[in-house]
Write a sequence for this structure.
C-alpha cells in the first residue's frame, strides 16, 4: 500500500522503473535457503543495475530501497528488483567474472536520512546537467553530454556522454569538480544507450522499448528486414538513435521459421510460354509472386505447393504448357454498399428546405374578404 504525500515516490518514478528482463513469479513465497540466497539485484537510475551480497542477512524484499556499497567509496541508493537463485542466473547470463569484479556489499535498508540526502542530490541533477553542457560549449569539446547521475550519498557524480572521437577531458573534470564540489567520473556510452537514457515515443506510438523494459542491446542487421520483406529504407527501419530498430529482432524467429517451407527464390520457373522470375512473397498467406519474362506485365500469383510442383517438373525435364493451371484463382466478390451506412438515409445530413407559406394579400382579411376603409372586416364569416 503506497503513501499519498511522499516526495520519495515522486523522485523514484523519475529515476526509472524496475525494467528487468526476468520476473520472479514466486517472489511472495520464501525460497529454500542456499548459497545464493543472499544475492540481490539492485536497480538505480534508468537501466543501470548491479549485483550485491546481503552478507548480514538483512530482511529485505523486492521493491525495498536499500543502501549499498559505492563503486570506490561511500554508498549508493537503489531499489531491490530480484534476489536469490534468479540473481545467480543473471550473473551467469551476463558472464560476470566474480573474481576480477567482486560483488559488493548491501549495507542496510535505506533510512529516512539516506532517502532525504539522495532526494536532494537527485533534485539538483537537471540544473547541473544544464551548467555542465555550457561548460563543454565554452571549452569547445567535440562531445555530447547526455545525462548525469549522482551517487546516493551526494559525493560523486557520473556524467554520461557520446563522442565520435577520443576526447581529452582532464581539464573538464577539474572544472566540474571546482563548480559542483563532488568527485567526477566521465563515462562514454553509445548512441543506443543514449536513446535509452533520454527516452521518447517510437513510430509505433508507444514509449521506446530501450527506455522501458530492455536491459541489453543485441545486434540488429539488415538481414532482419530482408527476412520480413521490409523495404531497406533507412528512415523507416532506423530508430531515434539512428541505428536499426531493436524491434526488427522481435518477430525474426517467426519469419525464419515460416520461410523454411518456401522454395528458393533464385530458381526461375520454366514453361513453354516463357520463364517466370521471382518478385516478392507473402509470408502469412503462403503466396509467391512471379512475372513472366516474355510478358513482364503478367504477374503470376502462385502458392507454395504449385511452385514446388513446377520446380519438380522442371528438374525432371518436363516443361508445362503455361502457368495458367497453377495460378491461384481469386474469387471476385460483389461489393455491396447496402449495409455501409446501416439503415440510415444517405441524405440525412442534407439541409431540409423549410415549407413556404403563402403571404397574405394586403387589404384582405384572413377569411379572404376585402376589409372596409377602417381596416375591419364586415364579420360575415363569424356568423
Amino acid at each position: 500500500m503506497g503513501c499519498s504525500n511522499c516526495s520519495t515516490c515522486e523522485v523514484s518514478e523519475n529515476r526509472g522503473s524496475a525494467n528487468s528482463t526476468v520476473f520472479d513469479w514466486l517472489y511472495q513465497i520464501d525460497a529454500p535457503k542456499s548459497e545464493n540466497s543472499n544475492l540481490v539485484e539492485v536497480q538505480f537510475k534508468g537501466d543501470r543495475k548491479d549485483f550485491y551480497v546481503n552478507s548480514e542477512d538483512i530482511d529485505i524484499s523486492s521493491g525495498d530501497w536499500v543502501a549499498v556499497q559505492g563503486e570506490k567509496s561511500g554508498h549508493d541508493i537503489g531499489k531491490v528488483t530480484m534476489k536469490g537463485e534468479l540473481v545467480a542466473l543473471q550473473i551467469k547470463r551476463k558472464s560476470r567474472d566474480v573474481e576480477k569484479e567482486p560483488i559488493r556489499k548491501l549495507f542496510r535498508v535505506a533510512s529516512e536520512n539516506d532517502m532525504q540526502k539522495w532526494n536532494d542530490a537527485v533534485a539538483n541533477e537537471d540544473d547541473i546537467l544544464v551548467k555542465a553542457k555550457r561548460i563543454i560549449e565554452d571549452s569547445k569539446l567535440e562531445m555530447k553530454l547526455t545525462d548525469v547521475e549522482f551517487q546516493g550519498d551526494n559525493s560523486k557524480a557520473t556524467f554520461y556522454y557520446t563522442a565520435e572521437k577520443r576526447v581529452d577531458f582532464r581539464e573538464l573534470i577539474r572544472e566540474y569538480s571546482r563548480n559542483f564540489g563532488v568527485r567526477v567520473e566521465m563515462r562514454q556510452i553509445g548512441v543506443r544507450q543514449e536513446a535509452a537514457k533520454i527516452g521518447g515515443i517510437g513510430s509505433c506510438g508507444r514509449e521506446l522499448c530501450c527506455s522501458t523494459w530492455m536491459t541489453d542491446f543485441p545486434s540488429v542487421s539488415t538481414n532482419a528486414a530482408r527476412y520480413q520483406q521490409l523495404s531497406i529504407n533507412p528512415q523507416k527501419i532506423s530508430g531515434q538513435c539512428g541505428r536499426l530498430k531493436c524491434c526488427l529482432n522481435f518477430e525474426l524467429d517467426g519469419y525464419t521459421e515460416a520461410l523454411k517451407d518456401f522454395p528458393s527464390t533464385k530458381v526461375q520457373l520454366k514453361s513453354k510460354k516463357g520463364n517466370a522470375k521471382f518478385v516478392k512473397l507473402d509470408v502469412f498467406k503462403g503466396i509467391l509472386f512471379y512475372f513472366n519474362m516474355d510478358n513482364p506485365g503478367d504477374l503470376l500469383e502462385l502458392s507454395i505447393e504449385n511452385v514446388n510442383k513446377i520446380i519438380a517438373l522442371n528438374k525432371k525435364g518436363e516443361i508445362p504448357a503455361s502457368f495458367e493451371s497453377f495460378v491461384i484463382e481469386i474469387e471476385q466478390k460483389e461489393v455491396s454498399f447496402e449495409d455501409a451506412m446501416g439503415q440510415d438515409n444517405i441524405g440525412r445530413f442534407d439541409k431540409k428546405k423549410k415549407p413556404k407559406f403563402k403571404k397574405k394579400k394586403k387589404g384582405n382579411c384572413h377569411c379572404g374578404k376585402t376589409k372596409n376603409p377602417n381596416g375591419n372586416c364586415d364579420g360575415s364569416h363569424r356568423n
The two ends are 88 Å apart (CA to CA). The first helix runs from residue 7 to 14.
